[in-house]
Structures are given as C-alpha cells and as structure tokens.
Design goal:
Elements lengths: L2 E5 L3 H13 L3 E5 L16 H5 L2 E5 L6 H14 L5 E5 L14 E5 L4 H16 L5
Parallel strand pairs: 1-2, 1-3, 3-4, 4-5
Helix pairs in contact: 1-4
Length: 133
C-alpha cells in the first residue's frame, strides 16, 4: 500500500484530499504544515512524516504564501530527495527555482481523487525511472 502524506493549509480541503486518497487505496497521514506547526524542514531538519511516506502531496500555500512554497519544496527535495512530491496549485502554475525538478509533479486546478491518484502515479514513476543522461 502506498503511503502518502497530505500537507494542506486548509483543514477542510485536506480532509477531502485524505478521504479521496483513502478511497483509492492509499495509506494517508495528514499535517496542516508550517502555518499551524513548526516545520522541521524550514528549520533545517528532517521531517519524520515525510520519511515514512512514499509520496508527499503538498498544497502550494502550505507554507502560508506562494513565495515560501519554493523554500519548503526545495528543502524537502534536499532533505528527502527520493520522496516524490505532488504540488497542488489552485490556479496558475508556480514559478520557483526547482520547477524543473522531475521529482515534483504540479497538479493545477481542482485536486479530485482521480486527478490526485494520476499525479501521484506520475510522481512515483519519475523517482523509479530517473531521466536518462
């Protein structure tokens, strides 16, 4: 069973994502992110929840603002480079320095269960089959 960590600043939307993923057979943990907790990644540490996950599903606003998302996602990639990330973006795409990272799949628009599942599968594939040099 694939283990997913859902991190979202909006608890109601997080609950919807978690339940959708559980219906698709994922084992899911949930965190409200740095807006409600001290984030070990933003403080230079590791995240125990991320270490236990096969895939991370992060809301682009999990850090509280769109600018902080780059720091958060970049930190996750440095500390947990083998854990793929699905970054949910409610509107237009993001612009940040690690945007070309194959371990990050951006999901724009409504993150329905089916769309989340498909994005997670793409993210897992990017880690399993690294780009050829």
């Amino acid at each position: 069973m694939t283990r997913a960590l859902v991190v979202h600043h909006d608890i109601d939307l997080a609950d919807q994502e978690v339940e959708s993923l559980r219906r698709f057979g994922y084992q899911v943990e949930q965190c409200s992110g740095p807006t409600a907790n001290t984030c070990p990644i933003l403080n230079g540490g590791t995240c125990n929840l991320a270490e236990r996950a096969d895939v991370l599903v992060y809301d682009a606003f999990a850090s509280g603002d769109i600018d902080g998302a780059g720091d958060l996602i970049g930190g996750l990639r440095r500390v947990h480079p083998t854990v793929p990330i699905v970054l949910t973006v409610p509107g237009i795409g993001m612009s940040w320095e690690d945007a070309d990272d194959p371990g990050v799949v951006e999901l724009q628009g409504q993150p329905t269960g089916a769309r989340l599942h498909e994005a997670i599968q793409r993210a897992l594939e990017t880690i399993r089959t690294p780009a050829a040099s």
